[in-house]
Protein backbone atom coordinates (compact mmCIF):
# COMPACT_ATOMS: atom_id res chain seq x y z
CA UNK A 1 0.00 0.00 0.00
CA UNK A 2 1.28 3.45 -0.90
CA UNK A 3 1.85 5.95 1.93
CA UNK A 4 -0.70 8.77 2.23
CA UNK A 5 -0.11 11.48 -0.36
CA UNK A 6 -1.50 14.41 1.62
CA UNK A 7 -1.42 15.66 5.19
CA UNK A 8 -5.01 16.54 6.14
CA UNK A 9 -3.82 19.34 8.39
CA UNK A 10 -1.90 20.93 5.52
CA UNK A 11 -4.89 20.57 3.18
CA UNK A 12 -7.07 22.26 5.79
CA UNK A 13 -4.62 25.17 5.92
CA UNK A 14 -4.55 25.36 2.10
CA UNK A 15 -8.36 25.57 1.86
CA UNK A 16 -8.42 28.15 4.65
CA UNK A 17 -6.00 30.38 2.74
CA UNK A 18 -8.19 30.14 -0.36
CA UNK A 19 -11.40 30.89 1.55
CA UNK A 20 -9.90 33.83 3.46
CA UNK A 21 -7.97 35.34 0.58
CA UNK A 22 -4.67 35.76 2.43
CA UNK A 23 -2.17 33.90 4.61
CA UNK A 24 -2.64 36.40 7.45
CA UNK A 25 -6.44 36.14 7.58
CA UNK A 26 -6.28 32.35 7.30
CA UNK A 27 -3.81 32.17 10.18
CA UNK A 28 -6.10 34.28 12.35
CA UNK A 29 -9.16 32.20 11.40
CA UNK A 30 -7.60 28.81 12.20
CA UNK A 31 -5.58 29.95 15.23
CA UNK A 32 -2.06 29.58 13.85
CA UNK A 33 0.81 31.95 13.23
CA UNK A 34 1.32 33.41 9.78
CA UNK A 35 4.82 31.84 9.46
CA UNK A 36 3.33 28.41 10.27
CA UNK A 37 0.73 28.81 7.53
CA UNK A 38 3.41 29.91 5.06
CA UNK A 39 5.61 26.94 5.96
CA UNK A 40 2.74 24.49 5.48
CA UNK A 41 1.92 25.92 2.05
CA UNK A 42 5.61 25.82 1.03
CA UNK A 43 5.85 22.19 2.17
CA UNK A 44 2.76 21.34 0.14
CA UNK A 45 4.19 23.03 -2.96
CA UNK A 46 7.55 21.30 -2.48
CA UNK A 47 5.88 17.90 -2.15
CA UNK A 48 3.83 18.49 -5.29
CA UNK A 49 6.64 20.09 -7.25
CA UNK A 50 4.13 22.71 -8.36
CA UNK A 51 3.26 26.27 -7.42
CA UNK A 52 -0.30 26.43 -6.14
CA UNK A 53 -0.45 30.17 -5.34
CA UNK A 54 0.54 33.29 -7.25
CA UNK A 55 1.52 35.83 -4.62
CA UNK A 56 1.72 39.62 -4.71
CA UNK A 57 1.59 42.34 -2.10
CA UNK A 58 -2.21 42.52 -1.88
CA UNK A 59 -3.61 39.03 -2.40
CA UNK A 60 -2.96 35.40 -3.19
CA UNK A 61 -4.41 33.77 -6.28
CA UNK A 62 -4.57 30.12 -7.24
CA UNK A 63 -2.49 28.86 -10.12
CA UNK A 64 -4.11 26.37 -12.54
CA UNK A 65 -2.55 23.56 -10.48
CA UNK A 66 -3.93 25.19 -7.33
CA UNK A 67 -7.43 25.23 -8.82
CA UNK A 68 -7.20 21.49 -9.46
CA UNK A 69 -5.86 20.82 -5.97
CA UNK A 70 -8.66 22.88 -4.35
CA UNK A 71 -11.35 20.62 -5.80
CA UNK A 72 -9.63 17.48 -4.49
CA UNK A 73 -8.74 19.06 -1.13
CA UNK A 74 -12.36 20.02 -0.44
CA UNK A 75 -13.51 16.50 -1.30
CA UNK A 76 -10.81 14.87 0.84
CA UNK A 77 -11.60 17.05 3.86
CA UNK A 78 -15.33 16.41 3.49
CA UNK A 79 -14.78 12.64 3.32
CA UNK A 80 -12.51 12.80 6.36
CA UNK A 81 -15.11 14.80 8.32
CA UNK A 82 -17.93 12.43 7.35
CA UNK A 83 -15.87 9.35 8.20
CA UNK A 84 -14.96 10.71 11.62
CA UNK A 85 -18.61 11.57 12.32
CA UNK A 86 -19.73 8.11 11.28
CA UNK A 87 -17.06 6.15 13.14
CA UNK A 88 -16.72 8.16 16.34
CA UNK A 89 -20.26 7.67 17.62
CA UNK A 90 -22.03 5.33 15.16
CA UNK A 91 -24.57 4.04 17.70
CA UNK A 92 -25.76 7.31 19.24
CA UNK A 93 -29.55 7.59 19.23
CA UNK A 94 -32.33 9.88 20.37
CA UNK A 95 -34.32 12.93 19.30
CA UNK A 96 -32.75 16.35 18.78
CA UNK A 97 -35.01 19.41 18.45
CA UNK A 98 -33.41 22.41 16.77
CA UNK A 99 -34.90 25.84 16.06
CA UNK A 100 -33.48 28.00 13.28
CA UNK A 101 -34.34 30.95 11.02
CA UNK A 102 -35.78 29.68 7.73
CA UNK A 103 -33.35 31.45 5.43
CA UNK A 104 -30.32 30.21 7.36
CA UNK A 105 -31.65 26.65 7.48
CA UNK A 106 -32.27 26.64 3.73
CA UNK A 107 -28.93 28.09 2.71
CA UNK A 108 -26.36 26.92 5.24
CA UNK A 109 -27.80 24.26 7.54
CA UNK A 110 -29.42 21.74 5.22
CA UNK A 111 -26.16 20.14 4.05
CA UNK A 112 -24.87 19.90 7.64
CA UNK A 113 -28.05 18.22 8.85
CA UNK A 114 -27.99 15.85 5.89
CA UNK A 115 -24.43 14.72 6.65
CA UNK A 116 -25.26 14.33 10.34
CA UNK A 117 -28.34 12.24 9.55
CA UNK A 118 -26.32 9.90 7.32
CA UNK A 119 -23.60 9.53 9.95
CA UNK A 120 -26.11 8.95 12.78
CA UNK A 121 -29.14 7.16 11.33
CA UNK A 122 -30.56 6.38 14.81
CA UNK A 123 -30.92 10.08 15.66
CA UNK A 124 -34.27 11.67 14.80
CA UNK A 125 -33.88 15.36 13.91
CA UNK A 126 -36.81 17.72 14.45
CA UNK A 127 -36.15 21.09 12.78
CA UNK A 128 -38.39 24.10 13.46
CA UNK A 129 -38.05 27.28 11.37
CA UNK A 130 -39.34 30.62 12.66
CA UNK A 131 -38.45 34.25 13.34
CA UNK A 132 -35.74 34.84 15.93
CA UNK A 133 -38.11 36.42 18.46
CA UNK A 134 -40.42 33.41 18.25
CA UNK A 135 -37.48 31.02 18.48
CA UNK A 136 -36.27 32.73 21.64
CA UNK A 137 -39.73 32.43 23.16
CA UNK A 138 -39.90 28.73 22.32
CA UNK A 139 -36.39 28.18 23.62
CA UNK A 140 -37.30 29.78 26.96
CA UNK A 141 -40.18 27.32 27.20
CA UNK A 142 -37.92 24.31 26.64
CA UNK A 143 -39.13 23.55 23.12
CA UNK A 144 -35.64 23.16 21.59
CA UNK A 145 -32.44 21.39 22.52
CA UNK A 146 -30.43 23.67 20.22
CA UNK A 147 -31.28 27.01 18.69
CA UNK A 148 -29.66 29.14 16.03
CA UNK A 149 -30.75 32.76 16.13
CA UNK A 150 -29.85 36.19 14.81
CA UNK A 151 -28.54 38.83 17.17
CA UNK A 152 -26.63 42.10 17.33
CA UNK A 153 -22.87 41.46 16.92
CA UNK A 154 -22.07 43.89 19.73
CA UNK A 155 -25.14 43.13 21.80
CA UNK A 156 -25.95 40.34 24.21
CA UNK A 157 -23.19 37.77 24.45
CA UNK A 158 -23.52 34.12 25.27
CA UNK A 159 -23.88 30.98 23.23
CA UNK A 160 -21.42 30.35 20.39
CA UNK A 161 -21.04 32.67 17.42
CA UNK A 162 -21.07 30.53 14.27
CA UNK A 163 -21.74 32.98 11.42
CA UNK A 164 -21.60 36.67 10.55
CA UNK A 165 -24.13 38.00 8.03
CA UNK A 166 -23.18 41.00 5.90
CA UNK A 167 -26.47 42.50 4.72
CA UNK A 168 -27.16 44.11 1.35
CA UNK A 169 -30.00 45.94 -0.35
CA UNK A 170 -31.20 43.64 -3.13
CA UNK A 171 -33.48 43.99 -6.15
CA UNK A 172 -34.23 42.76 -9.64
CA UNK A 173 -31.71 44.16 -12.15
CA UNK A 174 -34.69 45.53 -14.09
CA UNK A 175 -36.37 47.27 -11.16
CA UNK A 176 -37.42 50.87 -11.78
CA UNK A 177 -37.99 53.01 -8.70
CA UNK A 178 -40.06 56.16 -9.16
CA UNK A 179 -38.19 59.37 -8.35
CA UNK A 180 -39.23 61.50 -5.40
CA UNK A 181 -41.49 58.77 -4.06
CA UNK A 182 -41.14 56.42 -1.07
CA UNK A 183 -38.89 53.39 -1.64
CA UNK A 184 -41.06 50.27 -2.08
CA UNK A 185 -39.91 47.56 0.31
CA UNK A 186 -40.44 43.81 0.20
CA UNK A 187 -39.98 42.54 3.74
CA UNK A 188 -40.99 39.86 6.19
CA UNK A 189 -43.47 40.88 8.89
CA UNK A 190 -42.61 42.07 12.40
CA UNK A 191 -40.46 40.95 14.26
CA UNK A 192 -38.06 40.05 11.44
CA UNK A 193 -34.47 41.23 12.04
CA UNK A 194 -33.87 42.27 8.40
CA UNK A 195 -37.05 44.35 8.44
CA UNK A 196 -35.84 46.13 11.57
CA UNK A 197 -32.44 46.77 9.94
CA UNK A 198 -33.98 48.16 6.75
CA UNK A 199 -36.43 50.55 8.39
CA UNK A 200 -33.94 51.80 10.97
CA UNK A 201 -31.32 52.53 8.29
CA UNK A 202 -33.78 54.42 6.08
CA UNK A 203 -35.28 56.35 9.00
CA UNK A 204 -31.81 57.37 10.17
CA UNK A 205 -31.23 59.07 6.80
CA UNK A 206 -34.82 60.32 6.57
CA UNK A 207 -35.42 58.36 3.40
CA UNK A 208 -39.16 57.84 2.79
CA UNK A 209 -40.31 54.26 2.38
CA UNK A 210 -43.44 52.15 2.08
CA UNK A 211 -44.12 48.45 2.54
CA UNK A 212 -45.06 47.12 -0.89
CA UNK A 213 -45.14 43.40 -0.10
CA UNK A 214 -45.01 41.34 3.08
CA UNK A 215 -44.46 37.59 3.38
CA UNK A 216 -43.06 35.32 6.10
CA UNK A 217 -41.62 33.06 3.37
CA UNK A 218 -38.14 33.63 1.94
CA UNK A 219 -39.27 32.17 -1.39
CA UNK A 220 -42.26 34.52 -1.42
CA UNK A 221 -40.08 37.56 -0.76
CA UNK A 222 -37.61 36.63 -3.48
CA UNK A 223 -40.41 36.04 -5.99
CA UNK A 224 -41.88 39.48 -5.24
CA UNK A 225 -38.49 41.15 -5.67
CA UNK A 226 -37.85 39.29 -8.94
CA UNK A 227 -41.23 40.55 -10.14
CA UNK A 228 -40.05 44.11 -9.55
CA UNK A 229 -42.43 44.95 -6.72
CA UNK A 230 -39.70 46.51 -4.61
CA UNK A 231 -36.35 46.00 -2.92
CA UNK A 232 -35.43 43.80 0.04
CA UNK A 233 -32.56 43.01 2.40
CA UNK A 234 -30.54 39.78 2.11
CA UNK A 235 -27.17 38.56 3.33
CA UNK A 236 -24.65 39.22 0.56
CA UNK A 237 -23.75 35.54 0.15
CA UNK A 238 -27.45 34.63 -0.13
CA UNK A 239 -28.36 36.90 -3.06
CA UNK A 240 -29.74 34.40 -5.60
CA UNK A 241 -29.31 34.33 -9.36
CA UNK A 242 -31.64 36.88 -10.92
CA UNK A 243 -31.21 39.45 -8.14
CA UNK A 244 -28.42 41.98 -7.62
CA UNK A 245 -27.02 44.28 -4.96
CA UNK A 246 -28.24 47.87 -5.43
CA UNK A 247 -26.66 49.49 -2.36
CA UNK A 248 -24.19 51.56 -4.40
CA UNK A 249 -26.46 52.11 -7.38
CA UNK A 250 -29.13 53.87 -5.28
CA UNK A 251 -26.78 55.27 -2.61
CA UNK A 252 -28.71 53.39 0.05
CA UNK A 253 -27.54 53.46 3.69
CA UNK A 254 -25.15 50.79 4.92
CA UNK A 255 -26.82 48.01 6.87
CA UNK A 256 -25.31 46.72 10.09
CA UNK A 257 -24.21 43.08 10.18
CA UNK A 258 -26.16 40.46 12.02
CA UNK A 259 -24.67 37.50 13.84
CA UNK A 260 -25.86 33.90 14.01
CA UNK A 261 -25.30 32.25 17.39
CA UNK A 262 -25.89 28.69 18.62
CA UNK A 263 -27.56 28.16 21.99
CA UNK A 264 -27.74 24.94 23.96
CA UNK A 265 -30.68 24.29 26.28
CA UNK A 266 -29.84 24.67 29.99
CA UNK A 267 -28.75 21.55 31.83
CA UNK A 268 -27.21 18.38 30.47
CA UNK A 269 -27.86 17.79 26.77
CA UNK A 270 -28.21 14.34 25.26
CA UNK A 271 -25.18 12.87 23.53
CA UNK A 272 -26.96 13.25 20.20
CA UNK A 273 -27.60 16.96 20.80
CA UNK A 274 -24.00 17.60 21.84
CA UNK A 275 -22.74 15.83 18.72
CA UNK A 276 -25.01 17.90 16.50
CA UNK A 277 -23.92 21.12 18.23
CA UNK A 278 -20.26 20.23 17.67
CA UNK A 279 -20.92 19.39 14.01
CA UNK A 280 -22.67 22.72 13.41
CA UNK A 281 -19.93 24.75 15.11
CA UNK A 282 -17.15 22.96 13.24
CA UNK A 283 -18.79 23.09 9.82
CA UNK A 284 -19.99 26.70 10.02
CA UNK A 285 -16.83 27.90 11.75
CA UNK A 286 -14.70 26.57 8.88
CA UNK A 287 -16.99 28.07 6.24
CA UNK A 288 -17.86 31.38 7.91
CA UNK A 289 -17.37 34.53 5.83
CA UNK A 290 -14.11 36.31 6.52
CA UNK A 291 -14.34 39.46 8.59
CA UNK A 292 -12.39 42.60 7.79
Report the radius of gyration as a whole number of Å: 22 Å
H/E topology pattern: HHHEEHEHEHEEEEHEHEEEH
What gap, in angstroms, lies between the N and C termini? 45 Å
Lateral strand order in the biggest sheet:
4-3-5-12-6
Please write out the topology.
Layout: H1 8-20, H2 23-30, H3 34-48, E1 53-55, E2 60-62, H4 64-88, E3 94-100, H5 102-119, E4 123-129, H6 132-140, E5 146-151, E6 160-165, E7 167-171, E8 183-187, H7 193-204, E9 209-214, H8 218-226, E10 232-235, E11 244-245, E12 258-264, H9 271-287
Parallel strand pairs: 3-4, 3-5, 8-9
Antiparallel strand pairs: 1-2, 5-12, 6-12, 7-10, 7-11
Q: What's a quick, concise take on this entry?
A:
This protein is of the alpha/beta class and 292 residues long. The chain is built from 9 helices and 12 strands. It starts with 7 loop residues before the first helix and ends in a 5-residue tail after the last helix.
Explained architecture:
The structure is a single chain. This protein is 43% helix and 21% strand. The protein is α/β, with parallel strands linked by helices. The chain starts with 7 loop residues before the first helix and ends in a 5-residue tail after the last helix. The strands form 4 sheets. The protein has a 5-stranded mixed β-sheet with strand order 4-3-5-12-6, with helices on both faces. A 3-stranded antiparallel β-sheet has the order 10-7-11. It has a two-stranded antiparallel ribbon with strand order 1-2. The protein contains 9 helices and 12 strands. It has helices at 8-20, 23-30, 34-48, 64-88, 102-119, 132-140, 193-204, 218-226, 271-287; strands at residues 53-55, 60-62, 94-100, 123-129, 146-151, 160-165, 167-171, 183-187, 209-214, 232-235, 244-245, 258-264.
